[in-house]
Amino acid sequence: MVDLVEDQLENADGSTRAVLVNPSGGYPVDALQQQFEHSLAVIIGINAYKFPQKVRMLHTARPDAAQLAALLQDDRRDPLDRYEMVPMPLYDEQATGDALRTLLEKTLPARVRECGPKTRVLFYFAGHGDADASTRKSFLFPQDADPDDEGTLLRMDFVQQALADLPCQHVLIILDCCSAGALPTATAEAVRGRGGRPTRVYWEYLNRFVGARTRQVITSAGARQQAADRSSFGRYQLGQREGDDQEHSPFAQALFEALDPDNHPNTWGRPPGRDGVVTATELYLHVAEALAQGRARQTPGIWTLIGKGHDQGEYIFLLPGAQVTLEPEPDLSDPKNNPWPGLRPYRAEYDYLFAGRDQEIGELAQRVASHPWSP
């Protein structure tokens, strides 16, 4: 193992925080520079809708979008990690159906082609969404959406395909809306439920993450769930999101905690970004844990778009100012570092290393409970 040296980094307010530095390792930004030349972001936040009698006003969608745009353009970020807004953050009446279709079909693809394949794209939508279980159709609501006219809505599968088809290396879609989990089609879920743990990001891991094509989706709620907003209106109505009294939605607040170095939680014993890097999986795990501990009755999800261009990569964020070097991958010949126990017993403390049979285990448990055996 490499000996790490504890160092101090200065926060924006002049205070300091401890970081672990490996002088012989690689800096996260070095890996980023090898694979990317541009970082583009599409940020959409809609509070006020054209037909308020049909689609209720939201309180946090626009502030959430504005806060994310500010984090992505933070002056403390490395210039390569500072995002260009395409074309600019779209709020309320700027985010009409025609505007969003033009953005997805023309403006964004054209800008990606100008930048070249060494580009990564972040798409964020905060507003209303809906899904129809009987027709299996799901929609995002532009600002001029009329729920009675399907032609004014934005099909989620159209949004997914337009973004997956971009000629660039990495794409991350983040949706904070009702029925957000209905977006992924023909996909595999990357993390199932809670209970996952973030792994240390080694230098070799990071190079693999950024070196392979990535198409990932993080959603704030399930396919048939409401997403929490700030204000409560009692019983749900079409387009209404469950409320609380926060300045941001619970999902967005957790998102910002993981991405903002000045508001970093001490979660899991090693907060996301302790090594200067926040992966999409770490981001999801923090959001899932935060929502589970709060009052929001919604289940976030993380998805990889299998068959839509995903190739084992991982979308990453670098924390502004956190120029921390990464450890090399440990030697797996040492039994302490090897995740495959071989003939050694499988113990409960290693549960985070094994996954993939959750559904079968649940079905077996249900069958045993419903058909008890007695001698």
What is the number of E strands?
Answer: 15
pLDDT averaged residue by residue: 79
Q: Profile the largest sheet.
A: 8 strands, mixed
Molecular shape: globular
Order of helices and strands: EEHEHEEHEEEEHEEHEHEHEEH
Distance between the termini: 55 Å
- Rounded radius of gyration (Å): 21 Å
Uncertain stretches: 1-5, 19-23, 188-195, 231-246, 265-270
The percentage of residues in β strands lies in 15-25%
Work out the helix count: 8
By helix and strand content, what is the structural category?
alpha/beta
> Roughly what percent helix?
25-40%
Keywords:
375 residues; alpha/beta; 15 strands; disordered N terminus
Give the SSE map.
Blueprint: E1 5-10, E2 16-21, H1 28-35, E3 38-45, H2 61-72, E4 84-85, E5 90-91, H3 97-115, E6 119-126, E7 129-132, E8 137-140, E9 154-155, H4 156-164, E10 170-176, E11 188-191, H5 203-211, E12 214-219, H6 250-259, E13 277-279, H7 280-293, E14 301-304, E15 316-318, H8 358-370
Parallel strand pairs: 3-4, 3-5, 3-6, 6-10, 10-12
Antiparallel strand pairs: 1-2, 7-8, 8-9, 11-14, 12-14, 13-15
Helix pairs in contact: 1-5, 2-6, 6-7
Your description of this structure?
Strands 3, 4, 5, 6, 10, 11, 12 and 14 form an eight-stranded mixed beta sheet that branches. A three-stranded antiparallel beta sheet has the order 7-8-9. Strands 1-2 form a two-stranded antiparallel ribbon. The chain has helices at 28-35, 61-72, 97-115, 156-164, 203-211, 250-259, 280-293, 358-370, and strands at 5-10, 16-21, 38-45, 84-85, 90-91, 119-126, 129-132, 137-140, 154-155, 170-176, 188-191, 214-219, 277-279, 301-304, 316-318. By secondary structure, the protein is α/β, with parallel strands linked by helices. A hairpin with a 4-residue loop joins strand 7 and strand 8 (137-140). It is globular. The chain is built from eight helices and 15 strands. 42% of the residues are buried.
